[in-house]
Amino acid sequence: MVDHQLPYDERPLPVTVLGLGPMGQALAGAFLDHGHPTTVWNRTPSKADSLAARGAVRASSVAEAVAAAPLTVVCVIDYAAVHAIVDPAVGALQDRTLVNLTADSPDQARAMAAWAATHRIDYLDGAVITPTDTIGAPGAAILYSGPEDVYARHRTTLEALGGTGLHLGTDPGRAAAFDVALLDIFWTSMSGVVHAFALARAEGIEPTALAPLAQAGMGALPGIVGGYAERITSGEHPGDRSSIRSASAGMGHVVHTARALGIDTGVLGAAWDIARRAVDAGHGGEGFSRISELLMNDTNHLPVGRPGKLSQVP
């Protein structure tokens, strides 16, 4: 609710939210909770029902929604969906601000910023890197990139979305670049988790029995991430505590066991292939962090070859 006792220029500014999937609903709800007059639109109108019951205004079109506020936040499945929604309302968006919290790639973010510039739309690209239940609370974290003056103008309004809002610079693809790198860590890790549970169950181990030990082991990951970041920055990759050669051997044990149990090894098999190629290229005695540098220019550093080797476990 708007506090009408506040001076007019201190009242929360109107906001429009386009796209009411789980994240869009969380974003709109956070604006409402912080007193921002909030207009919402979704292709399926019924998704606005709960927000309308809390005081949101349901717009009948994107153009109507955009015209209701100086700031529009859009959060949908990808940038193709963003264009499908906002392109027909480009006239209404002129001289207003569009904050795109849709996840996609850095090149798509830069292309979207260029499109916005040609239509006189102030544009910020962004990425929500915490779950829906954190939005509006201290645990939320949202990344932004684009013109500093645009971010500064709307910073107070965007703070309604929760804990940490980080402006990463003027390159509009910067937030998306951070996002995809973090998603790389997350989904590669999640793929390992579900694969480990499949392997364990095939050996008669229930996931609930494995989970406590897995959680204890994964507790070391934050320290590993920080250590690898320092090594990659310095270019030093000592293998005194653990080497690519020893890591490759461990990966081989997992791949051998999984294949013997009839479990797909596509993800770890690919990682193991990279490790073995690094060993072949003479890096076996170095630390595993060295692979990050090799991956950046694979064709120059890692021999391509070894066709068929992934199906042959030593």
Give the % helix.
40-55%
Radius of gyration, CA atoms, in whole angstroms:
24 Å
Quote the beta fraction. Answer: 5-15%
Please state the structural category: alpha/beta
Number of domains: 2
The helix/strand order is EHEHEHEHHEHEEHEHHHHHHH
Second rung of CATH, namely the architecture of the largest domain: 3-Layer(aba) Sandwich
Low-pLDDT runs of 5+ residues are 4-8, 299-314
Helix tally equals 14
Identify the CATH homologous superfamily of the largest domain.
Answer: NAD(P)-binding Rossmann-like Domain
Shape descriptor: elongated
Which whole number gives the mean pLDDT? Answer: 91
CATH topology of the largest domain: Rossmann fold
Strand order of the largest sheet: 3-2-1-4-5-6-7-8
Terminal residue distance: 67 Å
Q: Biggest sheet, open or closed, and with what strands and sense?
A: 8 strands, mixed
Total beta-strand segments: 8
Give the class-level CATH name of the largest domain.
Alpha Beta
